[in-house]
Specification:
Layout (H helix, E strand, L loop, with lengths): L50 H35 L4
């Protein structure tokens, strides 16, 4: 005998009322919701960065990406050098 102790307490985990089924044959623009989200719920708009700080963040992320790419290039070059050095004909 299987026992089910689940009891619904009425809380909403994720509001799915605005979700529509996607169309396979045409593009539908998403309908605008009438709800107004407070600014405190949008941390990406309330970060307090000025233009100089924004440029510094962009430069730092580009530099980090180039550093990662550089590591991959150096490791690839070492692997190619070792393969050609120890290649037996």
């Amino acid at each position: 005998m299987k026992r089910n102790d689940f009891e619904d307490d009425g809380r909403t985990i994720a509001d799915m009322s605005g979700i529509e089924r996607p169309s396979l044959f045409s593009f539908r623009k998403p309908q605008k919701r009438e709800e107004v989200i407070e600014k405190s719920q949008k941390p990406w708009e309330n970060d307090g960065l000025n233009k100089k700080q924004g440029r510094q963040y962009i430069f730092a992320t580009i530099l980090a990406g180039l550093a990662v790419a550089g590591v991959f290039i150096v490791c690839g070059a070492i692997a190619i050098a070792l393969m050609t050095l120890f290649w037996k004909h």
